[in-house]
Sequence to fold (100 residues):
Amino acid sequence: MNKHLETLIAFKYGTQRQAIEVKDTVVEIGGDLLSAFKKLCYLFLIMVMWLVGLVLVVLLPIGTWFRLKAERDYEIAVEKAKKDYLDHMTCLCQKGSEDD
Fold:
């Protein structure tokens, strides 16, 4: 009976040691996962900062250029429309005398 009791006690302490080792391993893995998550968040932050820099350095000047081009095209279209309107509103007699 003593051998059975010793076996049970040894099994109890063996499983306790195993449980402690498993707990320590889980805590270590959790720390490693947390560290990896922090690194991924840091990389995400770096990517966001890079994209903001890209927007400020590249896309804003391009947008400004397109806006200025659109304003210039609008002014040209307005001038052309004014000229066409004035040409349309002139008298036929004045057009005939200009062609002669």
In short: The mean pLDDT is 85. Residues 7 and 100 are 127 Å apart (CA to CA). The two ends are 136 Å apart (CA to CA). Helices lie at 2-89, 92-99.
